Amino acid sequence: MPGSTPVFRLGLAPSIVNPRYNRLWLIPLDGIDTAVDTSPFDSIVAEFREILIALGEHDLSVRGMLAKYVDNYTKSVWVWGGRIHPEIYGEMCHLELFVAGLDQGIARRFHQTAARAGALIPNRIRDVANDLCPTTAFAWWMAALWEFSTIEPDVGPHPDDECKCGGPFAFWDDPISASLSAIEAAGLVTPQPGETRILVGTWSRPMSKAEFARLVLQNRKARPRGVQVIFDRLEKQQVEGSTKWSFRLDTLDESLRKKLGDSP
User: Fold this and answer.
1) 133: left (phi over 0), alpha (psi -120 to 50) or beta
2) Which of 65, 110, 125, 244 is within CB 3.0–4.6 Å of 121 for a Cys-Cys bond?
3) With a threshold of 0.90, does the pTM exceed it?
4) What SS3 state is found at 250?
């Protein structure tokens, strides 16, 4: 029905960050038994994995440098990637992005793949990352990592601290895993039916505890503590890497099932 809220089932499938581990995925109810459309990010994931294999024991990193420190480093083997403007320590920082690695060919290959990913990100991701004011396709991808990846960069030192080394100010020491984490967390790929084990039951869309309270009490000003008893007794699963929960609907009474299945 047009405008209706999609219903999901919870499934277990391999994580794209580390396929040896299974993670929870929310699978649309109408897409369980049909082939999943191929995402353009499937090829991005494959390319990142190929780069990881080619990298071997070599180091590869992405460094965000404060502009005043850029000249302190030799950039002949670094690949410039643009700028982002995140807020760090309560201040807006203009960071120059560089891909650094002993193998410049692999560094350039990562830059190209990340730039392709940045050009492909959908508007819902751009809306979230827009505040970082990325200047290139590669910078858009690093902005997406900043907002979505559960593998965060090391940040520091504080710009007011004395630091002879002068940075880097943001440092991704494993940008490939961070990229895969962002793809997974942002829902840019979906596991194929053949590798997914659907958990029993019908599950709600993911929602925060605050939204859960508003839906259950039908009150836009409701607080989570007002429904804590109900929240505790329901069968639920937390969506990995987020503060949202999915609730099992098929075991609920009709009134509560309708509240959790409809938009507020």
Assistant:
1) left
2) 125
3) no
4) coil
What span, in angstroms and rounded, lies between the C-alpha atoms of 64 and 77? 15
Token pair for residue 159? Answer: 């710009």
Local confidence pLDDT in tens for the 264 residues of the chain = 444 445 556 666 777 777 766 666 766 655 444 434 568 898 999 999 999 999 888 889 999 988 777 766 656 678 999 999 998 877 888 999 999 987 889 999 999 999 999 999 999 999 999 999 999 999 999 999 999 998 999 987 655 555 555 556 899 999 999 999 999 888 898 776 666 676 667 778 888 899 999 999 999 889 998 899 899 888 887 776 678 888 888 888 889 988 997 543
Instruction: Render 125-154 in DSSP notation, one character per residue.
Output: HHHHHGGG---SHHHHHHHHHHHH-SSPPE
Q: Kindly tell me the sign of the dihedral angle through the C-alpha atoms of 27, 152, 130, 89.
A: positive
